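Pilot study result, target chain (165 residues):
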Amino acid sequence: MTADGRSGADIDAFREAALRCPIPAAVEVIGEKWAFLILRGAFNGLQHFEEFQAGLGIARNILSDRLGKLVAGEILERSPDPSDRRKVIYSLSKKGEALMPVVLAMRQWGEDWGYGKMEIVLADTKNRQPVRRIKVFAEDGRELNFGEMTWISREELKGKADKAA
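Predicted structure:
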């Protein structure tokens, strides 16, 4: 037993699950400051190397490296600019677009925890109203707080579905 009452088996199960966790792989691709700032730029319409460089104030070599990693990770797609074949357009892939809730959650967290409220908010293009805050919801629609969630195996989840059927 550990000091907090957990058994060695609990710790072993945690370690085993942690080794298969997708978070480290995701962090490897996007988990660094410049990657997030490049993503934010792409979400806001930046497309060319020069736009990212000027808009972010990032050194050219660092920008080149991070753009390469985001392209290799299939977050951004690289294509020739039809208006000027000497330039390249960086655009979000579907995989990159799927990161919008992650980036928005990070921004909301930063605003909530004292890093500054922004004068510009993300709004719905249809009604020009702010989008809802990122929250975690139960299957039945209830908002869940930290203590109301637990990890379970897919096998256990399948067993619950089988019993309900």
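One observation from the pilot: Residues 99-165 form one domain. A full batch analysis is planned for the follow-on phase.
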